[in-house]
Structure prediction request, 323 residues.
Amino acid sequence: MTFHAFAATKAKAHLKPFEYKPKPLGEHDVEIAITHCGICHSDVHLVDGEWGDWFPLVPGHEIIGTIVGGEGFKPGERVGVGWQCNSCGTCEYCQAGEEVLCAEHAPTCQGRFGGFADRIRVNGRFAFRIPERLLSETAAPLLCGGVTVYKPLRTYATEGSRVGVIGIGGLGHIALQFAKAIGCEVTAFSRSKDKEREARQFGADHFVTGKPRRGTLDLILNTAHAAPDMDTYLGALRPKGVFCQLGAAAEPLSVPAFALISDSLTVTGSAIGSPSVIREMLEVAARHGVAAKTEVVPMKDADAALDRTRRNRARYRMVLENP
Ligand code: NAP
Ligand code: ZN
Prediction:
């Protein structure tokens, strides 16, 4: 049994065809024939060696495919897999349904081979049935990008909340849609003027390329992989507002103490979502028609597609498709 994938053999290397023999199917594992895999900017960080030496590296953690075999599913069922592919199952976090916080949290494509491939094996607890109404090519990015923005929105926003989203890329364009679905007043912050028309279609009521207005927002999601000017963005929050960092900025966020103190603000972060949140997110997406806007290309073009994401050229998510 051989799986066919695309891998980088060292930092910043081009993705090339790569074959490997999978580990035997564990008692609780499922094998999935991959049809689609989205390209998240985390795949770029990994390939570029920014998150350590995981080479040879097969990226890919926005996977949709069909069950080939394994426990708990019927062959042919359509499932998705995101960033996390296993956890211990017994610690206090796993018991509470917060598997993402488990110390043994296993990432799908770090230390194991991910979704830029024809097949994958994961623990069945981390394979999620895809609601019938969702199309595979526009739903694949929900498995990582979608749940990453849905989780803080369901936690910190309600109908009528004023929500700002910084960075209208893969995560950001889905955040605009979920925020609109919840009934928020939505502001998109972007450095790319050409994204305005589509940002408004995704759900933005306001599109801002410059500085935010002071004291106007209840929640800011920063999806950019850069630290913003925290003075400016914390100044844009109303009392008790929340700034939530989602992008993997390499540099620290410098938080001004007086802004926090005087308006009782919260600066926090959030990682993907646990299985129960992923299931809920998929249902909400199906109900409200939330879907990534994708450029679908054949799996063999993985290297060029990854580079489009690297250069902020994707509109708005590259998705690889197997023949
Ligand atoms: P993406 O598709 O490349 O989009 C990122 C967007 O951020 C860009 O489209 C751009 O939007 C903006 N941006 C890029 N560089 C910037 C800079 N230097 N300064 C300000 N804005 C910048 O990336 P993505 O897939 O959405 O991922 C974004 C980040 O989230 C990555 O760091 C990724 O690793 C991380 N991530 C985190 C989690 C989590 O669990 N927290 C999950 C998935 C991904 P504009 O053109 O509109 O300015
Ligand atoms: Zn991701």
Summary: Residues 40-42, 45, 144-145, 148, 167-172, 190-192, 195, 223-226, 246-248, 270-272, 309, 312, 314 surround NAP (ligand 1) (CB under 6 Å). The radius of gyration is 19 Å. The first helix runs from residue 41 to 47. The chain has a mean pLDDT of 98.
